[in-house]
Batch of 2 targets.
Target 1
Amino acid sequence: MAYRYLLYMLFLAMLPALSYAQKETHTDESKVPDFSIPDLFVNLKGQEIRTIQDWAQVRRPELVHLFEENVYGTMPKAMDAQTFTVVNEDKLAMNGLATLKEIDIEVTYRSQSATMRLILFIPNQRKEAAPVFLLINHRDPENIDPTRKIKMGFWPAEEIVSRGYAAATFHVKDVSDDDKVTFTEDILSKLYPEELEKENGMRGLGAWAWGAMRAMDYFETCQDINAKKAAVIGHSRGGKASLWTGASDTRWAITISNESGAGGAAISRRKFGETVERINTSFPYWFTDNFNKYNNNEALLPIDQHMLIAAMAPRAVYVASASEDLWADPKGEYMSLQLGTRVHREIYKMTGDFPKEINSPGNPVHLPYAGHHIREGKHNLTPYDWNLFMDFADNYFRFKNE
Ligand code: GTR
């Protein structure tokens, strides 16, 4: 008896070590396991995908569906009504350079409604409807202060406007709080409660992407905005949501991921930095429940994150990393971009390719259909990154005009 008790106590004492071992992470390239990556160009029936038609009608929808089922959850589309109410307008914002509009977007479904606030600065000096950058903001609201008393590099609205773009943003809390308990409080409990019951239901990141789509609904009604020239951008967890937005909603011309890492641009199978298990443990409310099946079992995933990048094709995609942000796996993010944009090159025959090895800080690679840079320094979204995104967009939209 005493012996069994001793064994039991020993087992209990080892438990934390055991679970720690499972969630162990590393940033050591020599520990990256061998892995084989699912083939972009073979569909679930084993058929080869080689034409634009097969890509657009068969493979792309199949991939988006696999991401819904296994990673981000389904994206509810049902609504009974949607209204846009300008609650504040200042035609002389930013010393007369921009018009500020704050818009309440209200969605009603089955007699319940939810409202999100869109903040939008539209440049006043322009000949035509303005192209727009929408930032999915998960950071403190002071980062997107509409009064501009506080100005943060995370959302350099003045610089965005000075380059001829409208600067738009919303706070994720309006659609789903970034918190494991209260994330249900907005659209999930009010509009789509059945999602919470489903193993493949929408969770936090999916809700943020839903919010970005509602902003796009507004852009499509606003004559000062050119909704055909819209870029969606997010940093880190916001970047995961931004990629999911662009992958599932083809209205976005450019999708930008800034240091989105695990569950974003980084290849899951590399298990470098944050892993699937680690992210599902720390943030159980971001991904759909099914994603847990792949904890420490990435080989079982029917997709990997390069396929999320591929789902943008033929639209443009930009992936940015930071040299000290190993947690987000810059190399894995680059690998996704290289592999995912094979669709642009091999199916859509677009020209230009990424160098085999990741470019060094200070040497961005801007191709006609995709961009990449790695910034010197830590995990953050800075004016340096924004300027490169705008350089890329300048070229991309100029090219599209020609
Ligand atoms: C970290 C998380 C990352 C990333 C980051 C962020 O704690 O592990 O996946 O999303 O937060 O959003 O800054």
Target 2
Amino acid sequence: MDHNATTPLAEAVADRMSAVLREEFGNPSSVHHFGQRAKAAVDEARSAVADLIGADPSEVVFTSSGTESDNFAIRGAAEALEPGGRRHLISSGIEHEAVLNTLKSLARRGWQTTLLPVGASGLVTAEALAAALTDQTAVVSIMHANNEIGTVQPVAELARLAKARGAVVHTDAVQTAGKIPVNVKGLGVDLLSLSAHKFYGPKGAGAIWIRRGVRLLPLVTGGKHERSRRAGTENVAGALGLGAAADLARTKMTTDAERLAALRDRLEKGIIQSVTGTVVNGSGARVPNTTNVSFDRVEAESLLIALDLEGVAVSTGSACSSGTLEPSHVLKAMGFPAHRTQNSIRFSLGTANTDAEIDHVVSVLPRLVEKLRSLTRTPVRA
Ligand code: PLP
């Protein structure tokens, strides 16, 4: 139940990749037929990715990950706009580290950065963005769905506002692409990141969509690969794995989403009913597979380990670094107090999860939580 961290490779994707690894060893830049076959296969995968997000294949660039795509979008657009005098970047406080640390890094080099607040719902509002936008704003980067709580941001509305002020708009769609419909035209953004391993594709394979006409300075310089936007001999098997995962996602999306939402709701309801002092974090539109629950008077890391011993894999938003439990930066940005930001567990379901597994979690949780609570003295908040 930790599919927002990663997903298992789908059988069909593994088959496609292993065939390619064995048979398609040509370099896509080679003129001879070995190279041309590999190039054709990569371009077929490019079309599959484009189809998943309603884009033109020529606008899709393969990368090594969602992290690289986020870096390329923000650094590439910022550096391309810098000579024009725009030195301001806007994002939100609930972004993935791939975005937050890229902004931090640019801030150290003199860029002005603004992280928009989110309310208790976990949503960025048009008012907050409007107040932060200036004529100096180069890039606005707002994630499509949050990885910890699953809330889907009003990206189309935010993109309209930002573009009216001349900013380039990026969305990190790593947690939505392959899970819910993502359409670049509908979102109205200029740049979009996605990652194969979040939807049953391989790790280390991502893509960025770059709207035609939007200029990015390349992160990786070298040969003329990927229309001179990202140098380096293509990861042929990775790209094909991403393409195969995109094809699969497109055909199964509606049925998978309905099933996962039903499983998620069953889990959420079961937990809230059977364990006192629990509250769901984030409201409004959410990706169908995700729920994030705070357990009062329970250290999230301890509950994670207890669940692991029961054979259940989940994750916490908070990070344990050098023995201190860091609160979740997402829940902190939502304005929640410490007892809620350090006690949260993310359950993120996948296509292989079953009703029986949900029921197992709901049946073991009261005992595990009770045991952990018996070790502390503070009374449970209702
Ligand atoms: N952005 C979001 C929202 C994510 O959830 C993740 C992965 O957890 C990433 C970016 C990074 O993607 P990758 O693991 O492909 O580098």
